[in-house]
Amino acid sequence: MTSDGLLEDTSPKDSYLIPRNIMAEPDYIEDDNPELIKPQKLINPVKTSRNHQDLHRELLMNQKRGLAPQNKPELQKVMEKRKRDQVIKQKEEEAQKKKSDLEIELLKRQQKLEQLELEKQKLQEEQENAPEFVKVKGNLRRTGQEVAQAQES
User: Which residues lie within the region annotated Disordered (predicted)?
Assistant: First the structure.
């Protein structure tokens, strides 16, 4: 009490400076009105899935045992494997492109031999399909040439 007989106000004069709850309390907490629909927490379909629960249980067990989970996710592993396969294919293609001079010459000779064999087969087929008088005429020419060569030598 003061000498004037008035009570001295111990609370601060600026009451708006006192922090209060900023958010208002919802109405459904005070009233038990059955007509109001009370909010419920939404169900997360990922956490309720059986696969997720099994995976989570496995991770917890591995953590208790001290086993570290796999360092890389499955997608990253697949992508790395594809990249490795692609690099291997590129190297094989480059190796085929970079052939030595010997390999090139061998391929040329092989192609020539194949062409010669095809020509021989065509000639044989033509001779087999040719009429008899053409065959006799060819034989006469050959024997005539052989006789001429024998006389010259």
Answer: 64-100, 122-153
For 62, other C-beta atoms within 10 Å of its C-beta total 13
- Decide if pLDDT at 4 tops 90: no
Contact of 46 with 52, CB cutoff 8 Å? yes
For 18, residues 6+ apart whose C-beta sits below 8 A from its C-beta are 12
Answer yes or no: do 72 and 117 share one domain: no
Are 77 and 85 in contact by the 8 Å Cβ rule? The answer is: no
Q: Which domain holds residue 125?
A: 105-145
Higher pLDDT, 110 or 69: 110
pLDDT in tens, 19-49: 556 776 666 566 677 777 778 888 888 888 8
